[in-house]
Amino acid sequence: MASLDLSAVIVAYLSAGTLPKALAALHMASRGAAEVVVIDNAAEPQTASLVGTAWTGATVISNETNRGFAAAVNQGLAVTRGDPILLFNPDAELEPGALDVLLDALERLPDGGILAPRLLDRAGQPVLSCYPFLSLASVAWRHLQLHRLMPNVVHGRYRPRSLAPMRLDPFPVDWAQGACLLVRRKVFERVGPLDERFFLYCEEVDLCRRAAGAGWRTYYVPAARVRHLEGSSSAQVVPLKLASHYFSKVLYFDKHHGLVQTTLLRGVLLLDLALRIAYRSAGLLLGGPADARLRLDSYRAIASALLTAGPRQIEARWRAMGVTSLASSR
User: Fold this and answer.
1) 216, 112 Cβ separation under 8 angstroms
2) What is the CATH number of domain 7-228?
3) In sequence order, which residues have a C-beta less than 8 Å from that of residue 328 and are 6 or more positions away?
4) What is the reported pLDDT for 236?
5) Which of 69 and 325 is assigned the larger pLDDT?
6) Cα 214 to chain centroid, rounded
7) pLDDT tens figures, 122-135
8) Taking all residues of the chain, what is their mean pLDDT, rounded to a whole number?
9) Apex CA 130: angle with CA 212 and CA 188, to 5°?
10) What residue spans define the domains of the chain?
11) 86 beta partners
12) pLDDT at residue 53 above 80?
């Protein structure tokens, strides 16, 4: 392993089922030498004991209310001392050698401010996890299900390279999924911490974009492999997860693309929601899945917000949903 003083920041949220394995894999990969900070956004009583058992000396910060992912990461950043910093999900598991590969790549890539490994699904298969910056085309391609018909149209320059099993050399990307990111401390010192307006999702897109503006590249490192049980925490709070997919993009466009493109984005998202509402309504009539009513009500509430609320109002509603979702999950 490269001789760097690693700090790891992990945000837990209803993560008791996955956190011990994530910590065990990290402990093995780092030889127990990393500084570890776990921020519990659900204040679960068992988190401190789980972390203490897995990692003696780890710091646990317990939030009585769900402050959102970005705010929790920033809490962890504020108390860490190491460099670089590993932002690590509690539902991610480092494969053997992955951390060494990331640390070595960081030393070999002086312009690399953010490094991301290849993510694997539950079955160990690689998944697409690096992308171009968000645009109207990429959002429409994803939200209107065009990726099922034309998988390489928008992500063509990333998809073949990132999924090819024999491709092992790092290459620059616009942004990478935040399940596991190795970040130089200088990046945060230069561009600031995560933007806390992003309650869940898009915070890593925004970070990579700000880092690029400051001259740092984001690299995808396919030789480093991390298994990701995607959405294991957010799946327990479906309305918040669904809303976050839409609200995060509205705030991102409001920040980076201006009024005209944000308005057009709302139109794309509302078309998506109209199709989903029609689909779920038909499913209810035909005796659809158990969560059909929950999802239908969620889609209707999201559509109402996109039609009537400005960015600040959306942010406030989003944050309130986070608090409510935590209360309802207990």
Assistant:
1) yes
2) 3.90.550.10
3) 237
4) 59
5) 69
6) 22
7) 999 999 999 999 99
8) 91
9) 35
10) 7-228, 237-329
11) 8, 182
12) yes
In the block, tokens 């190491």 appear at 82
SS3 for the chain is: CCCCECEEEEEECCCCCCHHHHHHHHHHHHCCCCEEEEEECCCCCCHHHHHHHHCCCCEEEECCCCCCHHHHHHHHHHHCCCECEEEECCCEEECCCHHHHHHHHHHHCCCEEEEEEEEECCCCCECCCEECCCCHHHHHHHHCCHHHCCCCCCCCCCHHHHHCCCCCCCEEECEECCCEEEECHHHHHHHCCCCCCCCCCCHHHHHHHHHHHCCCEEEEEEEEEEEECCCCCHHHCHHHHHHHHHHHHHHHHHHHCHHHHHHHHHHHHHHHHHHHHHHHHHHHHCCCCCCHHHHHHHHHHHHHHHHHCCHHHHHHHHHHHHHHHHHHHC
Residue 53 or residue 203, greater confidence: 203
